[in-house]
Design brief:
Layout (H helix, E strand, L loop, with lengths): L3 H4 L25 E5 L10 E3 L2 H8 L8 H10 L5 E5 L13 E6 L2 E8 L9 E8 L3 E3 L2 E2 L5 E3 L11 E5 L6 E4 L2 E3 L4 E3 L24 E4 L1 E8 L2 E9 L9 H4 L22 E5 L18 E2 L12 H5 L9 H7 L14 E3 L46 H18 L3 E4 L3 H5 L6 H7 L7 E5 L2 E4 L9 E4 L2 H14 L9 E2 L5 E2 L5 H10 L1 E6 L5 E4 L13 H17 L10 H20 L8 H4 E4 L7 H5 L6 E4 L8 E8 L2 E8 L2
Parallel strand pairs: 1-3, 1-19, 19-20, 20-21, 21-26
Antiparallel strand pairs: 2-3, 4-5, 5-17, 6-15, 6-18, 7-14, 8-9, 9-13, 10-11, 10-14, 12-13, 15-16, 22-23, 22-25, 24-27, 26-27, 28-29, 30-31
Helix pairs in contact: 2-3, 3-10
Pfam family, one: Phage_sheath_1C
InterPro entries: Tail_sheath_C, Tail_sheath_structural
Protein name: Phage tail sheath family protein
């Protein structure tokens, strides 16, 4: 029962604490990367979050000769990244586009189920399935209704509603029925519901002698899936009945993130290797499948959809407001699919520069010569592997993909693009720096950085560990960006960090070349002394000196996005002194916290930032128009690029002093 203190019915003075400020503004994560590229398997054009290299492999497969995506993601995690969103790209051409390998199963009435690889790709052609029938329950009836509506059994343990059974008698064809109801008191299994709605397969038993015992067997199915001879999946108690909890197409459904019924959020889990599609037009025909339990059926027809890959597959198309769901899905492809993931702060598409390598076939078995064979006439040939290789993009096509990266970052304002130089510019030491400088001249934006050259990594495709593969550096550097953000903060320049999981740069850069690249706004990756391979640059590709440094742009993006999200409560608030004071307090507290973390250049808050939201920048004419202006000024910390150590002689000693270079 409420007390007088709670209701205020007793005269007196009561104290209540009310927060006069607005909701707190909190810093946002800036370490989350987004990648779009070619993968061995996985859903196409669906952003999937991954938090480890092993999780990426479970979704998209390991490294492949036809792609750089897996190398980039592994480089991201090896260099300190902890979370990324990945989009697999593939051609959707109806003839040569991506397709899933499959095989059909059925009986005399035609195909019933199609077992297909869970995602498109040639990887599904390595799968084999063994589909067999299971009979967990086998009972003999002790009586049957004269009209065939129910049968009495010696026990109902294990038999449930919507279970499929097969009823047989010697010399008669079998009959398939579905349990409509069970009565434990009378031990009856009803084939026709005693009351309530009936479905098409709720039929009385016909074609059998109701006065004679009948054998009742439960009918379920088991699927064993193998990849290259290794068991990778076992799925039991699958049913042909759509209402059964074990309905095959429901248990092994298409790739989509299931939703947690409690939290309402998507539960991301790697898909099963196969899915089941229903092929019957009439699901009331529940005759069992014709199966040989010893047969291994190979899936076929899988295509990776790479040979017809185009720029549109990487970048998608703008979605118009009047586009329907089908049209929007067709346009929201590749990089466009990452637009809806608000937490992405770094963007890369290394496979725009992919140079597919021929697969390394396994060595042939040792040959034992037959003494009776004419070796001179014997010609041994090995079939060429069936590889759906992507095309080699021209420089103009590569530029189109990277321009889409930049355009998305500029339009959304809160993400940053990592650009890779063309292969020729990154691998030809005789050409010098002209190639990468020409590529740099194509861009002028504060939302992107160009890193040079490529990296040499030990290729996991070679089990001997003797092969080296050149890969674009964007994935490795994205991991370095993320590690710096997590360890220190986004205000630290993402440079002078060792590059992990890389042996060397594709070409060596000396001091003179480094200076030329630095002046042009190209970030060099080079080995310096015994400090290993490091990224030695943190400049954007902007001609504006105010936005020269990567950390300045990314710090401002984080501040802008945090304020954009946290100040949404101001909409429809009265434009009065109280509201403006609350806004000023919220923003000031947020910036003060950043100042204490060393993100600004000033030594005091007054030197680091200011917040103005009062009558000076909100005159009556703006108030009459329903506008509220908050002016925020920030002095971001700029990295030291040049440190001069002065050494001089003073009488009989030496003095060493540090001074900033001008």
């Amino acid at each position: 029962m409420p007390t007088a203190m709670h209701t205020g019915s007793t005269p007196g003075v009561y104290y209540q604490a009310i927060d006069a400020g607005g909701p707190a503004v909190t810093p946002l994560r800036t370490d989350i990367a987004g990648f779009a590229g070619i993968a061995e398997r996985g859903p196409v054009d669906l952003p999937v979050p991954v938090t480890s290299w092993r999780q990426f492999v479970s979704w998209f497969g390991d490294v492949i000769p036809a792609a750089f995506l897996a190398y980039a993601v592994r480089g991201f995690f090896e260099n300190g990244g902890v979370r990324a969103w990945v989009v697999r790209v593939a051609s959707n051409d109806p003839v040569a586009g991506a397709a899933a390998a499959s095989a059909d199963f059925g009986g005399a009435a035609g195909p019933v189920w199609r077992l297909a690889a869970s995602t498109a790709g040639a990887w599904g052609n390595r799968l084999t399935v063994n589909l067999r029938e299971l009979n967990r329950i086998q009972l003999t009836t002790t009586g049957t209704d004269p009209d065939g509506r129910w049968s009495r059994l010696p026990g109902l343990s294990g038999l449930a509603v919507n279970d499929e059974v097969r009823l047989t008698q010697p010399g008669r064809p079998p009959v398939w029925r579905v349990v409509a109801a069970v009565d434990p008191m009378t031990s009856q299994a009803w084939w026709v519901p005693p009351e309530g709605p009936r479905r098409g397969y709720h039929l009385p038993v016909t074609g059998l002698d109701h006065t004679a015992p009948m054998t009742v067997e439960s009918v379920e199915y088991r699927v064993l899936v193998s990849a290259s001879g290794v068991l990778v999946g076992l799925y039991d108690r699958l049913s042909l009945v759509p209402e059964n909890i074990g309905y095959g197409p429901l248990v092994l459904a298409g790739v989509r993130p299931p939703v947690d019924p409690v939290t309402g959020t998507a539960v991301w889990a790697p898909p099963a290797p196969i899915l089941i599609e229903e092929l019957r037009a009439d699901t009331a025909d529940l005759r069992g499948l014709d199966l040989d339990p010893a047969t291994e059926t190979a899936l076929a027809g899988g295509r990776s959809g790479l040979s017809w890959l185009s720029v549109d597959d990487f970048v998608g198309q703008p979605v118009a407001p009047d586009d329907g769901p089908v049209a929007a899905a067709l346009k929201r492809r590749g990089l466009r699919a990452l637009e809806d993931v608000a937490e992405v702060a770094l963007l890369a598409a290394p496979d725009a520069l992919v140079r597919p390598e021929p697969p390394r076939p396994a060595p042939p078995p040792p040959c034992v010569p037959d003494p009776c064979l004419d070796l001179a006439a014997a010609v041994i040939t090995y079939p060429a592997p069936d590889v759906d290789a992507p095309p080699l993009f021209t420089d103009q096509q590569v530029y189109a993909v990277q321009a889409a990266l930049v355009e998305q970052c500029e339009r959304l304002r809160y993400r940053f693009a990592l650009l890779d130089p063309p292969y020729a510019a990154a691998t030809d030491p005789a050409a010098g720096l002209r190639g990468v400088l020409d590529w740099r001249a194509r861009f002028d934006t504060r939302f992107a950085a160009l890193n040079h050259p490529w990296l040499r990594v030990l290729d996991p495709l070679d089990p001997t560990g003797a092969s080296i593969r050149l890969v674009p550096p964007s994935g490795h550097l994205a991991g370095g960006y993320a590690a710096g953000d997590l360890q220190t903060g986004v205000h630290r320049a993402p440079a002078n960090r060792p590059v992990q999981w890389a042996l060397a740069a594709s070409v060596a850069i000396d001091e003179t070349g480094h200076g030329v690249l630095n002046d042009a706004g190209v970030n060099a990756i080079r080995t310096i002394g015994n400090r290993g391979l490091r990224a030695m640059g943190a400049r954007t590709v902007s001609s504006d000196p105010d936005w020269r440094f990567v950390n300045v742009r990314r710090l401002m993006s984080m501040v802008e996005k945090a304020l954009d999200i946290a100040l949404q409560w101001v909409v429809f608030e009265p434009n009065d002194v109280f509201t403006r004071a609350r806004v000023t307090l919220s923003v000031t507290n947020f910036l003060l916290g950043l100042h204490e973390q060393g993100m600004f250049a000033g030594s005091t808050p007054a030197e680091s930032f200011y917040v103005t939201c009062n009558e000076t920048n909100n005159p009556e004419r703006e108030i009459d128009l329903g506008r509220l202006l908050v002016e925020v000024g920030i002095a971001p910390a700029v990295p030291f690029e040049f440190v001069v150590v002065r050494v001089g002689r003073v009488r009989d000693s030496l003095q060493v002093k540090e001074a900033s270079a001008t």
